[in-house]
Design goal:
Elements (H helix, E strand, L loop, with lengths): L4 E8 L2 H12 L2 E4 L5 E5 L3 E3 L5 E5 L3 E5 L25 E5 L15 E3 L3 E3 L6 E3 L2 H17 L2 E3 L2 H4 E2 L2 E3 L17 H7 L2 H5 L14 E2 L1
Parallel strand pairs: 1-6, 7-11
Antiparallel strand pairs: 1-7, 2-3, 3-6, 4-5, 8-9, 10-13, 11-14, 12-13
Length: 214
């Protein structure tokens, strides 16, 4: 689960001014999307190795959104609440758990045959076991999120049953493009977890709806 992501948005009644403050004080890049509604703050630089050298992982970004118009939302004007109070708009934090990974998810494992004679995937097994380590880490992340009031976008709820997860869809088409990454076409057609996390109505198509844990 090397690609688990954390998203943090801060509410403001003046996102442009808040973004300018962070840019001036910390030297962060101010990326308006659009100006005054949502500003992505880019610190730059990289996480450090234990020896102090740069790793390949860039520093996390920070979002600043307008409390009076919290995007994204199907309605361009947003919805209530529209104020900064303990019961109104406050920091939004999501954790996107990485999908199951491993060599057993590689699509080429299900193809039998040779290049000249053709390939056959008719005997492919749709489900495969996910490692115990990934399951333990997932439960640990969910537990921390629940205690912290953070919302979790969890692909396991769509892909997995118990300790086994899908590597083919119902039509026998591979879900993965390699041992780690889901195919873009599958995500586009089936994943409703992002919309659910943002409070939007999910599409009706999909293997299962992608519930979001509170």
């Amino acid at each position: 689960m090397t690609n688990t992501l954390i998203f943090v948005d801060l509410a403001s009644d003046d996102p442009a001014a808040a973004a300018t403050f962070y840019a001036d004080v910390f030297g962060w890049e101010n990326d308006p999307r659009p100006h005054g509604i949502y500003h992505r703050m880019v610190p730059g630089g990289f996480f450090k190795h234990k020896d102090g050298s740069d790793s390949e992982i860039g520093n996390l970004h920070l979002g600043i959104f307008d409390a009076a118009n919290a995007r994204p939302h199907p309605d361009p004007a947003g919805v209530a609440p529209r104020e900064l109070t303990t019961a109104g708009r406050k920091a939004r934090i999501w954790i996107l758990i990485d999908n199951p990974i491993g060599d057993n998810f590689r699509p080429e494992n299900e193809l039998k045959g040779r290049r000249l004679s053709g390939f056959d995937a008719s005997n492919a097994v749709r489900m495969t076991k996910v490692s115990d380590g990934q399951l333990i880490l997932r439960e640990r992340i969910i537990g921390i999120a629940r205690e912290s009031g953070v919302r979790v976008m969890d692909p396991y709820l769509m892909l997995c049953t118990g300790t086994e997860c899908a590597r083919l869809d119902q039509e026998g088409v591979p879900i993965y493009k390699d041992a780690d990454h889901l195919r873009a076409s599958f995500i586009y057609a089936h994943a409703a977890m992002i919309d659910a996390a943002l409070g939007m109505a999910p599409e009706t198509a999909g293997l299962k709806k992608m519930p979001v844990r509170n």
